[in-house]
Design brief:
It is a single chain. It is globular and about 50 Å long. The N and C termini lie far apart (48 Å). It has 2 domains: 45 residues, no CATH class; 177 residues, Rossmann fold (3-Layer(aba) Sandwich). 42% of the residues lie in helices and 19% in strands. The strands form 2 sheets. A 5-stranded mixed β-sheet has the order 1-2-7-6-3. By secondary structure, the protein is an alpha/beta fold. The longest helix has 19 residues. It contains 8 helices and 7 strands, in the order H-H-E-E-H-H-E-H-H-E-H-E-E-H-E. The structure holds zinc ion (ZN). Zinc ion binds next to helix 2. The site of zinc ion has 8 residues, from helix 2.
Length: 225
């Protein structure tokens, strides 16, 4: 058997064991007694929420964004587990925190969408973490989920680029699709982390140019913005 197949089978077996032995009353961060969202009170209290909204502005174009918390400690662990380890329990916890944040901040919108990945990147990872979160939020709030965007180019590695380099790097990456489905609607765009805001800006810009009334951004965490 090839090394690659063995690796995949081992991964599948471990994932299966995790499902079989997973207990929903155990905190996924510390192993303590969990509350209703797979996490204990103590770990939950370490997530410092970011109240209020922030305006993202460029070229006289404005977007409002909200983040559940800063990109640190518990939230960072949850995001990294969802993004790189396929840990959907962590994703479930993040989605529930997003729903609570939407309700607490009274964010109003008509439909939900997510930051897309290129076909190649999604195939490699096997899923899109932002799409996963948006599906759960959509289901929980009973608001339609619309695929509004595709990512047509892979953005080069952002590491090592300065602020303007990061913006240039993403300027032609996103294209609007299914425009008729969101004409005149307020769209909530979901992503895991906001850093420079360039991704959120270009996604929002593409949707507004294609007929969205407005775009509000919600991320699980914010980092350095
Ligand atoms: Zn805990």
């Amino acid at each position: 058997m090839g090394k690659r197949i063995t690796k995949h089978l081992t991964y599948l077996f471990e994932a299966l064991l995790e499902v079989v032995y997973y207990k929903d009353d155990v905190c996924i961060i510390c192993g303590g007694n969990a509350e209703e969202i797979n996490i204990c009170k103590s770990c939950l209290n370490k997530i410092k929420t970011c109240p209020g909204d922030t305006v993202l502005c460029k070229n006289n174009n404005y977007f409002i964004y909200y983040s559940v918390s800063y990109y640190s400690k518990v939230m960072k662990t949850l995001i990294l587990r969802l993004k790189y380890k396929g840990d959907f329990f962590s994703g479930e916890t993040i989605a529930k925190l997003m729903v609570s944040h939407i309700q607490r901040e009274k964010i109003k919108f008509d439909a939900i969408t997510f930051v897309p990945m290129t076909k190649r990147a999604e195939k490699k990872r096997g899923y899109n973490q932002s799409q996963f979160l948006s599906k759960l939020v959509s289901k929980s709030l009973d608001v339609p989920l619309i695929k509004c965007l595709v990512k047509v180019h892979e953005s080069n590695d952002q590491i090592g680029l300065d602020g303007s380099g990061r913006w240039d790097n993403l300027s032609n990456c996103f294209r609007a699709v299914n425009e008729k489905m969101y004409l005149g609607k307020v769209i909530l765009l979901i992503d895991d982390v906001i850093t420079t805001g360039a991704t959120a800006y270009y996604c929002g810009d593409a949707m507004k140019k294609s007929g969205a009334k407005s775009v509000i951004v919600l991320t699980a965490a914010k980092s350095c913005i």
